[in-house]
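A quick aside before the break. I want you to see a complete sequence-to-structure record at least once, exactly as it would be stored in a machine-readable document. Don't worry about memorizing anything.
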Amino acid sequence: MHALTSEQYARLHRLAQAWTRAHLRDAKTAPSFNPRLAADALCFQRYDDPVLGEQLVGALVTPVSLWLVVVSAEEPDGPQEAGARHWLTLPSGDYSLETVRLGEGEWCRRLVLLEDLSDIANRQAASRLAQRLMQRVMIADEGGEGGA
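That is the input. The structure line, written in tokens, reads:
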């Protein structure tokens, strides 16, 4: 596995910042809002998608939800169509992701995995949750069951 570049880490940081700018105000009114958490792009790794090419796959933790996220390993050419669907095939199965815009030219493909993180104690616990998520989706499911 190849390490991410400093530019890729910067891009993932911008993604988390874009979520904050676009959604934090509304998220604070949600009953599941967790003030102990902040948007953070975690556990990203390179993945070669047969349709999209080299991608970065990881988790976006927010104060209200946990997403499986895919972004291009390189800067995107331009805005993507919001709502477009893409099937992502990972070792654990196939996942249907939706393209979402986060404002200011930032976008990603995502699958919301958890919609309520109110019981997560702190950012370290959220990071451990993201690590477990990525371990599960990046390892083949021996039971033969697919993803979402």
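Two observations worth writing down. The first strand starts at residue 40 and ends at 49. The domain at 6-137 is CATH 3.30.1460.40 (Yope Regulator; Chain: A,). We'll return to this after the break.
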